[in-house]
């Protein structure tokens, strides 16, 4: 609307008017959020929701009727203030309607409901612009979209009027974004992540701020503008979804830095290529990278053990808001100030518009922020990026050759017995297969000891209770690692070694690899450190064979009886990393591992395990005896 109300030939005024509108719409969110929270806690919420809706309706309808730039700008500001009140009241009502344990889930759903309609709105706007263009002529283009918006407010008021229950219990006011920003994030890690988020938000903000003018320069008009916004909104949504799921074995911190750099590069292309289709696609790519950066960053700063601490996430939101505000102010100003420049390239000319220049500058700033963030966040220093990425694309974790060679060589203690470990993620069926293998071995006359970790000894049982009880909170990753190692040391000393020394076959359900996979890969601690601690705890005892039962975490977790223990209830990406970790360990030493797809029928799995165990078994009958007994019929039970 403001673009339409400024003179078409004055591109810089137009860019600044659009940018100014966006600034006016974002300012209340940055400055007035706590006020809205306070009001929502005190005023009758149903009244507040309905008044906000009716006022927004009236203001939005008057914008096209009045058709004056100043009123349009004022309306943008007022509608945004009212929206702030509305959202605060709605969130407060939601919190009061639900039991407390549901509130994190409700907050997530509310966020989805608030941001989810953005792509739909953008598409709708593009369609309305096309219809209005065809039927109402140039000047009425934004009118139709505004009337439809007013209709949405009408429906909303009606819905609130007929809903019976809007409780009036108070809730704490939302923290002020600016205050959060000045207080800092609470953790050093979040500061590096904040830099990355500032970059990602800057790219998206830059595109939004000049998209109307830029698409106009490219002959796109309002429908083109709507399409660009839709591309961005869809991209962001998809990116947010993709972030935690992409390249699971790859370092999340590296991924975050790379996503910001990629968003900056998409913005460079977007700024330089003067073609509407390219602009739409690049905006969508930019959205995917920025969205992935957002969800990766959020996961990186939220400590799963302290889910109540919303501060780091709120800090990131504040950073994103302020960075967008900076983009809304700066990019249109730069675009207006630089204006269009025509470059003569011999037989063709290249129009470098003011908005292209603004976008390019935003891209360069983001690129610098992305590179700095990458360097600051890099948790795999010294490991080259390309092979690391390539390995992650194959679902593996890259270990540089020199590290493999330098890994502590575990002295192989060959005792008289045989040592077999069963490993795998949750619900893979290790326990069942370990038991079946033991029965089979006993049937063949071997002395078999079946055991498990954690918790096979008296002390171990107490450690197990501590480790798996969901009431254990605040256990640090290192402490967890050492407790598992302590259980293991006790297990070796009191169960495994005595059995091995008398020549038994020891079958254990979990061993060192579980710690490498869960505490190393899962908790993202240095795997070499975990290996070293465990080599010491076990005195270097390595299994003769490790059977790895492979299953996708979601399938495995589904097989488990409820309720989940402390480790089982870790998020999906934790279990994905554990799975990738087990795989990487097994693939690095194929002679010592048997990798099996745990979704296959149980009897088939048992048979394969028996074949493989058979290969490593000592001959139960002393050599030479066979000649003496060969005249007797062999008694076999299969
Ligand atoms: P389980 O008895 O069902 O196998 O449970 C043991 C849990 O402990 C399982 O979730 C995996 C976890 N675990 C580790 O995280 N590290 C270890 O070293 C071991 C042995 C188990």
User: Ligands in the structure?
Assistant: thymidine-5'-phosphate
Q: CA-to-CA gap between the ends?
A: 84 Å
Number of helices: 25
CATH fold title of the largest domain: Growth Hormone, Chain: A
Mean pLDDT: 86
- The CATH architecture of the largest domain is Up-down Bundle
Low-confidence stretches: 408-414, 621-638
| CATH domain class of the largest domain | Mainly Alpha
- Tally the beta strands: 7
Question: How would a crystallographer describe the biggest sheet?
Answer: 5 strands, parallel
- The radius of gyration is 31 Å
Tell me the fraction of residues in β-strands, as a range. 5-15%
Strand order of the largest sheet: 4-5-3-6-7
Q: Give helix % range.
A: 55-70%
Descriptive account of the structure:
The protein is mostly helical. The chain has helices spanning 2-5, 11-42, 45-66, 69-97, 103-115, 117-135, 141-162, 177-183, 188-217, 221-242, 252-272, 276-301, 311-338, 354-377, 385-393, 401-406, 430-443, 458-468, 477-501, 512-522, 527-538, 553-559, 572-588, 602-616, 625-629, and strands at 341-345, 348-352, 418-424, 448-452, 505-509, 545-550, 593-597. It folds into 3 domains: 32-174, MFS general substrate transporter like domains (Growth Hormone, Chain: A, Up-down Bundle), CATH 1.20.1250.20; 193-398, Up-down Bundle (Growth Hormone, Chain: A), CATH 1.20.1250.20; 415-617, P-loop containing nucleotide triphosphate hydrolases (Rossmann fold, 3-Layer(aba) Sandwich), CATH 3.40.50.300. It contains 25 helices and 7 strands. The strands form 2 sheets. It has a 5-stranded parallel β-sheet, with helices on both faces. A two-stranded antiparallel sheet has the order 1-2. Residues 408-414 and 621-638 have low confidence and may be disordered.
């Amino acid at each position: 609307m403001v673009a339409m109300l400024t003179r078409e030939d004055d591109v810089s005024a137009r860019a600044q008017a659009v940018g100014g509108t966006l600034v006016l719409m974002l300012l209340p969110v940055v400055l007035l959020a706590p006020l809205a929270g306070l009001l929502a806690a005190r005023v009758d919420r149903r009244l507040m929701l309905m008044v906000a809706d009716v006022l927004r309706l009236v203001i939005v309808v008057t914008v096209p009727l009045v058709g004056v730039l100043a009123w349009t700008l004022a309306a943008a500001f007022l509608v945004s203030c009212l929206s702030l009140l509305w959202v605060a009241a709605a969130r407060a009502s939601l919190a009061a309607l639900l039991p407390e344990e549901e509130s994190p889930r409700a907050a997530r759903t509310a966020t989805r409901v608030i941001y989810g309609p953005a792509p739909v709105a953008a598409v709708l706007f593009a369609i309305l612009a096309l219809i209005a263009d065809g039927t109402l002529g140039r000047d009425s283009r934004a009118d139709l979209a505004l009337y439809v918006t007013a209709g949405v407010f009408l429906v909303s008021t009606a819905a609130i009027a007929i809903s019976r229950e809007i409780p009036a219990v108070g809730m704490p006011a939302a923290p002020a974004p600016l205050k959060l920003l000045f207080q800092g994030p609470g953790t050093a890690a979040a500061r590096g992540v904040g830099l990355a988020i500032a970059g990602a938000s800057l790219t998206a903000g830059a595109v939004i701020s000049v998209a109307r003018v830029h698409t106009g320069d490219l002959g796109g008009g309002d429908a083109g503008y709507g399409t660009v916004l839709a591309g961005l909104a869809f991209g962001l949504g998809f990116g947010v979804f993709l972030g935690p799921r992409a390249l699971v074995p790859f370092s999340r911190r590296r991924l975050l830095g790379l996503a910001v750099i990629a968003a900056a590069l998409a913005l460079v292309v977007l700024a330089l290529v003067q073609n509407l289709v390219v602009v739409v696609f690049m905006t969508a790519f930019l959205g995917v990278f920025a969205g992935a950066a957002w969800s990766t960053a959020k996961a990186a700063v939220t400590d799963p053990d302290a889910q109540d601490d919303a501060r780091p996430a709120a800090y990131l939101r504040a950073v994103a808001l302020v960075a967008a505000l900076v983009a809304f102010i700066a990019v249109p100003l730069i675009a207006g100030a630089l204006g269009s420049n025509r470059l003569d390239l011999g037989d063709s000319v290249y129009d470098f518009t003011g908005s292209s220049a603004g976008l390019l500058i935003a891209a360069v700033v983001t690129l610098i922020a992305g590179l700095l963030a990458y360097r600051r966040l890099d948790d795999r220093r010294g490991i080259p990026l390309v092979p690391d990425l390539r390995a992650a694309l194959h679902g593996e974790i890259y270990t540089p050759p020199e590290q493999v060679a330098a890994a502590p060589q575990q002295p192989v203690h060959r005792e008289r017995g045989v040592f077999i470990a069963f490993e795998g993620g949750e619900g893979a069926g290790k326990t069942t297969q370990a038991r079946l293998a033991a029965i089979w071995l006993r049937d063949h006359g071997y002395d078999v000891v079946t055991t498990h970790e954690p918790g096979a000894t008296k002390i171990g049982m107490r450690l197990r209770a501590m480790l798996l009880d969901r009431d254990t909170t605040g256990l640090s990753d290192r402490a967890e690692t050492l407790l598992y190692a302590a259980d293991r040391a006790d297990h070796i000393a009191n169960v495994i070694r005595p059995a091995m020394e008398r020549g038994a076959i020891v079958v254990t359900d979990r061993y060192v690899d579980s710690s490498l996979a869960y505490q190393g890969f899962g908790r993202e601690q240095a795997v070499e450190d975990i290996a070293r601690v465990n080599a010491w705890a076990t005195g270097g005892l390595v299994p003769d064979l490790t059977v790895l039962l492979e299953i996708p975490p979601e399938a495995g977790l589904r097989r488990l009886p409820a309720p989940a223990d402390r480790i089982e209830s870790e998020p999906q990406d934790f279990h994905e990393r554990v799975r990738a970790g087990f795989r990487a360990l097994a693939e690095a030493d194929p002679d010592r591992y048997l990798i099996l797809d745990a979704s296959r029928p149980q009897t088939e799995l048992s048979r394969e395990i028996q074949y493989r165990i058979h290969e490593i078994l000592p001959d139960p009958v002393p050599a030479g005896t066979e000649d003496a007994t060969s005249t007797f019929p062999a008694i076999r039970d299969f």
